[in-house]
Specification:
Number of domains: 3
Largest sheet: 8 strands, mixed
Distance between the termini: 53 Å
Strand order of the largest sheet: 1-5-6-13-12-11-7-10
Helix content: 25-40%
Shape: elongated
CATH architecture of the largest domain: 2-Layer Sandwich
CATH topology of the largest domain: BirA Bifunctional Protein, domain 2
Strand content: 15-25%
Amino acid sequence: MSENPENPVPSFRPEARSPRGFIDKRSHQIAIERHLITTVSKVYEDFGFEALQTPAFEYADALGKFLPDSDRPNVGVFAQQDDDEQWMALRYDLTAPLARFAAQNWETLPKPFRRYAFGPVWRNEKPGPGRLREFMQCDADIVGSDRPEADAEMIALAVAGYKALDVPARLRVNNRKLLNGLLTSLGVSESGQQLGVLRAIDKLDRFGLEGVALLLGAGRKDDSGDYTKGAQLPDSAIQPVLDFVSAGGAATRAAVLEKLAAVLTNSAEGQAGLEDLTRIDTALTAMGVGEDAAIFDPGIVRGLEYYTGPVFEGELLLETRDDKGNLVQMGSVGGGGRYDDLVARFTGQQVPSTGFSFGVSRLAAALALTDLGKKNVARGPIVIIAFSESDMGEYFKFAADVRAAGMAAEVYLGRSGMKAQMKYADRRLSPAVVMMGEDELKAGQVTIKDLDLGRDLAMQISDNKAWKEGRPGQVTLSRAEAINHLKSIAENR
């Protein structure tokens, strides 16, 4: 394409598109996320956690198992070289920066160190439904306590957070020591085979016990004919593993522990894991966390190389459907557990730690598909209709009065007529519009239309006469009275 020197037109026009795995957020999405973070942060503070903010970038070697290969510096993370040729990467989560911070400042920190943090994290992975490359997390962690009661507090914290959000959810709790102990007692010590068992158990929700049994043994063929190789356990080992995962069906946490104890009689590590869960159950009961809010589920598998003890996962007890009515599977909306080895990467000394992370972006996406999300829709400002160029000063003066009274307001700055201005206000989800025509200005009055009383009809207004003869919710008041009336409309959400 040629360029005109008097009116240059670029020869190349880039396609307007977002990178895969990255999304734009409008005000309603931002409002939901902001509500989630504000609410959860208040819960964290109520539990005695202090806020901490760490940089978006960390040195790549601080990211633990996500350390980029020397020949592939962007595997799993977004990395670049600093001017001193050291690799830096955008943080993969909020826990690795905490471990670095704790190691760097351990001598001056109160111990145990209780911190919470929120912010975006980035993962250079293949995006998919519900899986973005940039998303928000909101974490709380206790660094420096090996007590099972610290894990119980993280579970209670998560339960309190979901309750404060008015989100129906429950925590599913397991302990890595249980399964590790069981496999050791069964003679399953090869790491590849152990990994196969863990992956088989992780499919329990999808395939049921019968499918898990196949994956524990020779393998499983799905309906399409694709074959998945199994963990190759002997028949004598398969049934104890099935008994183990089936224990989660018991009615109470104590009943689950009783069933697990029968399976783990020959495992010292398994018995240690049961002791952890017993103390967690006692603490949860003392904190008023009911059986329906936190359950023991041996089928929960998280962080195969990361967690060292109790693990927990937030399950959304809410059906989510898209605009076409299709069921949307959101997966877990939070998770955490005990990780006792992370700080040791820096110091060489084990520092017991436990934490929980709310999946803010995933939870916000889920709530946006439900009626709960509508509670936090971002409302627009009060819109002052612009009738004439000569009266713009009066419009701005009234807008300033509305703002001074603590409400958001704007003067319409387009050049469209009445109908278009009303559509604009409706699309902004404005609670009300203000009209100051010639008659109102002469009388020192303001006409207000409450859009919440008839938003569906706002799109049908064609002119000023139709507006004044139309719907209920329209009043004409003095300017002083108008401010109070607008307050009553804005506050009635």
